[in-house]
Design brief:
Elements lengths: L2 E8 L5 H18 L3 E8 L6 E8 L2 H8 L2 H10 L9 E5 L8
Antiparallel strand pairs: 1-3, 1-4, 2-3
């Protein structure tokens, strides 16, 4: 059963560009190496560019666990974690109700 998740966090203003670069590298890794991650999208809040949201769809729990254990996750965490303003990252699980996606 697919896992739908959103992660929210905020970083220091001076770290925004560094975190955006790390996000781009991380998402490229996910695209190339995680077939069980069916969607990974990172958004930046327009009215406050220090805030980010990541949207995920994992094929199943195995794909979710594989993603969480990847070296790329550890590398990404090493970049954004020291720059957090928020108390960690807020991960929220959702159930899909409807979609227009194929």
């Amino acid at each position: 059963m697919p896992i739908y998740q959103i992660a929210h966090y905020q970083v220091k203003a001076g770290a925004v560009e560094k975190v955006k670069k790390a996000i781009e590298e991380f998402v490229a890794y996910v695209k190339a190496n995680e077939p069980g991650t069916q969607m990974y999208v990172a958004w930046q809040l327009k009215k406050d560019p220090t805030r980010f949201a990541h949207l995920f769809i994992f094929k199943d729990e195995a794909a979710h666990k594989a993603h969480g254990k990847s070296i790329a996750v550890k590398k990404f965490e090493a970049v954004y974690s020291p720059e957090l303003v928020s108390k960690g990252v807020d991960f929220v699980d959702y159930a899909q109700v409807a979609t227009n996606a194929g």
